[in-house]
Write a structure and sequence with these properties.
- The structure is a homodimer.
- The first copy, chain A, is of the alpha+beta class.
- Chain A is built from eight helices and eleven strands.
- Chain A has helices at about 1-10, 30-35, 115-125, 130-150, 155-175, 185-195, 200-210, 225-235, and strands at about 40-45, 50, 60-65, 70-75, 80-85, 90, 105, 110-115, 180, 215, 220-225.
- In chain A, the strands form three sheets. Chain A has a four-stranded antiparallel beta sheet with strand order 1-8-3-6. In chain A, strands 2-7-4-5 form a four-stranded antiparallel beta sheet.
- In chain A, a hairpin with a 5-residue loop joins strand 4 (about 70-75) and strand 5 (about 80-85).
- At the A-B interface, helix 4 of A face helix 4 of B.
- Chain A binds a DNA duplex through helix 7.
Chain lengths: ~240, ~240
DNA sequence: CGTATTATTGACTCCATTCAAAGATAGTGG
DNA sequence: CCACTATCTTTGAATGGAGTCAATAATACG
């Protein structure tokens, strides 16, 4: 039975996330070489850790199915959700310094692929372009984090609108519906991620719903008006309507 | 004359920032090899650009003397100061994806060293550890950005206190006084960086001054009470005094 | 010396938080 | 299958921190 499961595992070559995930930018031959080094598909259930803050660098991971969150605990002991990870997205770069500066936690049942620490050098040697691609991914993550930093200055309504549009876009890029999806987070987690109180999140969602920009029943989101949401997300506070 | 100036340029081997800058983690031999590849000391004056948002990736730079800021312009056309760079700090990783996602601008007269794009591969080949060290630097920068994200949720007073302590610590690590330094930013820039209105910055600085935690005359800062500042920076808003 | 930039201060407003309570949902065991 | 509980969400009212507007003051610069 175990063999059957192993056989069912999808190698990088067969994976549909090729143009997003680690294989991005690599030739077919290179991806095949990569497949032998990448540890395929570890299954993890909700609230299980991919790695923990303080762990020695474990390696670079990729979400294959499901979603995860990156969480850091500050010196006060407060948790902060730094990012949400969708299929094809890489994580682990926070640990390259030596130890992981945040924890990666499954938001639902997920499959993760792993490029373990002790095989990275070997992999980069066998696939020279991989080094460059890893730098690119690392740079992309840095840029996303900087974008989040800019978002942190916006009004609550803008934060929520941007968050929803961002999720929608990223889901679409992965072949999911861009207009209907299930939020992987509680109101509390959304608030934590965006720097808002849970009550504010609830009120703002209601407000967007009343404006007919989106519909949300518990965690089921339907985007109704992209232009409307983008207008809110990008409206300059100094600019009159 | 030009030769004299060239001779005065400090190679990585001689530079005092060795344990902070690119040479960090490399052996003496490796640093020597590196010196031949790194372009030494370009001088730039206040408000001059090291690279611009939108530029094709130019390379990895290091501040040798002076300070710089990383600035991005959002879709609304608003500027955001993402970080302040001190001597020995690296920049340019935001461009590894392909084009630079932000601009790097001199805050005063600076000297920058450059590892140009087209020499990085060669350098990493000659000095294999360099690849790993660049990943580490990239990871450090990511972690700093994530820390800034956490800071963005704090109160104004906490932001200012953290900002001052952070500057103080980083200056000390580079051999400068940790208690007295000249702010490289206007109140406006501080506010922009921390997500506060200029008036709020002014008021909060006055407040910290009245509490005798620091003294500030225009741009000249004297830290008076580290413990006091740390207490403010780390005080949990849910925790009673 | 005069102008432009930068910084301070006060008064007022408003967005988001906090506190408090009730309502809805999902999961558990009898 | 229903009752029970824990968790999550919504809603209201009151408060407060930071923003905005407006004016003055201080500093730097040519």
């Amino acid at each position: 039975m175990k063999d059957v499961i192993n056989d069912l595992k999808i190698s990088c070559s067969q994976c549909s996330l090729g143009d997003i995930c680690i294989p991005r930018g690599l030739s077919k031959t290179e991806v095949k070489t990569l497949s032998d080094v990448v540890k395929q598909k570890t299954i993890l259930y909700q609230n299980e850790y991919i790695y923990r803050q303080g762990d020695k660098f474990k390696g670079i991971f990729a979400i294959q199915t499901g979603m995860a969150k990156l969480v850091t605990i500050d010196p006060n002991g407060d948790e902060h959700i730094l990012s949400i990870l969708l299929p094809g997205e890489l994580l682990g770069f926070d640990g390259l310094g030596d130890t992981h500066s945040c924890s990666a936690i499954a938001l639902n049942t997920i499959n993760v692929c792993e490029l373990p620490r002790n095989r990275i050098e070997q992999a980069c040697h066998k696939v020279p372009n991989l080094t460059y691609e890893l730098f690119r991914h690392s740079s992309d993550i840095l840029n996303d984090t900087q974008t989040h930093l800019v978002t942190a200055k916006l009004s609550g309504e803008q934060k929520i609108a941007k968050f929803m549009l961002d999720l929608s876009n990223r889901l679409q890029a992965r072949g999911f519906s861009k207009s209907e999806f299930r939020l992987p987070l509680t109101r509390n987690e959304i608030g934590n991620h965006l720097g808002l109180a849970i009550e504010t999140v609830s009120r703002l969602l209601k407000q967007l719903q009343q404006k007919k920009l989106l519909d949300i029943q518990l965690r089921e989101v339907t985007i109704l008006d992209y232009d409307g949401l983008m207008q809110i997300a990008h409206k300059d506070s100094n600019e009159e309507v």
